[in-house]
Protein: Streptomycin 3''-adenylyltransferase
Amino acid sequence: MLCENLRTILDTQLLGIYLHGSLAMGCFNPTISDVDILVVTHQPLSVFVKRQLMLQLLQSSGQPHPIEISFLVADQINPYQHPLPFDLHYSEDWRQKMQDELENGTWQRWNDRQVHDIDLDAHITILRKRGVTLYGEEIPPTFPEIPVRYYIDSIIEDYQGANKAKNSHSVYFILNACRVYAYLQGSHIYSKDEGGVYGLTTLPAEFIGLITHALDIYRGRSNERDFDLDLLNKFAAYMDKYIRDWQKT
Structure:
């Protein structure tokens, strides 16, 4: 239904709609996962079209699953530039902000400046490796190949942000740290679930219980969300050191 609505709103502007993230990689948990989408258009969108899209997203997200979506312009992303620009973005973290801007009229200034997102380096890398075309042109050559150094910068920055919130979002931090570790160790592009499994077989044995607990919650096998904070901090310190040492090599 969302794809149909996007096609109706964007009409001839639409180049393609693409799925990445956990749903594309086969580890979607309907109770906690987002549906991750990238949309590519031929030209930048007017603020009036963006307003129409945002009203649709506010209605669709969470019915039944939260949506995280970025709209990109074809000739702004390919050939590659850094940092990558985006034309419009929505996630549930932005819901209140978007509702406020629609109500107070500041949506009319959405095109006043160009905005960028370093996370797009990771999203597009994953999309090219394991994404799904929902509508339109194929993934390559629509999306450029991301230089490895920028992909690494993106996942490390995401790790550092997750580290700051690890006490309240422990599952994401632990499993995301494991998949960052998997990439730095062996260039593996993994989902959070796959990263956790990799961590179980490669990280020190003292962290097996921590990772297993995170995986059980992520897979819907446990509702117990309390973690041993001392062990969580020890895990974070281990990962911090590993990343620092890796960056020195």
